[in-house]
Amino acid sequence: MKPVVVKNCKILNTRTLVLEEAQNVLIEDGLISQIGGADVVSPEAEVIDAQGKTLMPGMIDCHVHVVASSFNLGRMASMSNTMALLRALPIMQGMLDRGFTSVRDAGGADWALADAVTSGLIDGPRVFCSGKALSQTGGHADFRARNDILDDPCSCAGKIGNIGQVVDGVDECRRAVREQILNGATQIKVMASGGVSSPHDPVQNLGFSEAELTAIVEEADNANTYVMAHAYTARAIIRAVKCGVRTIEHGNLVDHEAAQLMKERGVYMVPTVITYEGLANEGERYGLPADSVKKIADVRTHGMRALEILEEVGVKMGFGSDLLGETHYMQSQELVLRSRVVGNAKAIQQATLIGAEILNHEGRLGEVVEGAYADLLLIDGNPLENIELLTDTDSIKLIVQRGQVYKNAC
């Protein structure tokens, strides 16, 4: 792997949230090996003159579904493996093109897709995969129609396009966690409440018993990892937090009590405000089932208020998009929506440093420091002043991932 020197770049410090004076950055063997002045050189390196542009860490999306190439997740669940895989590849490449160099997949992607990226076989972000999201019968990842045969709830669980696995009872839950870990999951996803895109579970419903949730958390902890929980209502959030989950996904109907408990327990929230805009504006057009279309209003209007509550209480938030089908292109717009509540700097921090914390990759991802992975973006301008620069691929002049130059428009 050829070394790279990015010279004359201002560095966006995601801890202090300031833009540091121009420096040179040496990239070797996939890592940031040195940061400094004119003495940072390598005779063998490719030299890229940043001309004062902003160098920042690649962004991290902590809630994606890279295999969700359709709004109709039930249809996706029965799609052929070959078709589901081929449709996922441009989605992953699009994420990298937008500057997302790492993603946490919340159901669907497996270790093979993650390995294909790290081995250089395909273009895409680093993938921290959950495998199949765990759902109770009739829960958020059970896409069967009411008249489907119910004697084999997992008949399509092995399909690449199916984001979930239906499990019931403590023993089944324990086995399912162990299976996902065996298959390479880096964290476990559970459906702890109803949701929008599934046919029969109202948003206000709870998912799993407390005994089941606790067992899932215990098995994840035994494997030195954690549980991320899909949960909308304050009741579902409080229940999941008390059972030991580490991150709450969506959380549109959070209240101050639930937020305070999250802060006390050190639990992260990963809001996904942009997906409701996509669902509302384009879902019906692209095949979102009618039952799901009716649910959107229940959560859409509360998304921004949830951000306000979480910011007031001081809950740490990671960046998430959760987009489906034809709306993946909207991914970066989540930054703009968040910035209206928390400001540009914090929105960027959520998509970098806080994301690295959630992934348990502090010091490796989410900041430009010596020893970190060389996952980097060079921005033409200062995103701390104009966050919309991060929504325009033309403003992203350089993308480096795993130490390799993916895009160079300098």
Describe the fold and architecture:
With 410 residues, the protein is of the alpha/beta class. It contains 13 helices and 17 strands. The strands form four sheets. Strands 1, 2, 3, 4, 5, 15, 16 and 17 form an eight-stranded mixed beta sheet that branches. The chain is globular, with a radius of gyration of 21 Å. The chain starts with a strand and ends with a strand.
Question: What is the gyration radius calculated from CA atoms?
Answer: 21 Å
Total beta-strand segments: 17
Overall average pLDDT: 92
Q: What is the tally of helical segments?
A: 13
Uncertain residue ranges: none
Oligomer: single chain
User: Which descriptor suits the 3D outline?
Assistant: globular
Order of helices and strands: EEEEEEHHEHEEEHEHEHEHEHHHHHHEEE
Largest sheet: number of strands, sense, barrel closure? 8 strands, mixed
Strand percent estimate: 15-25%
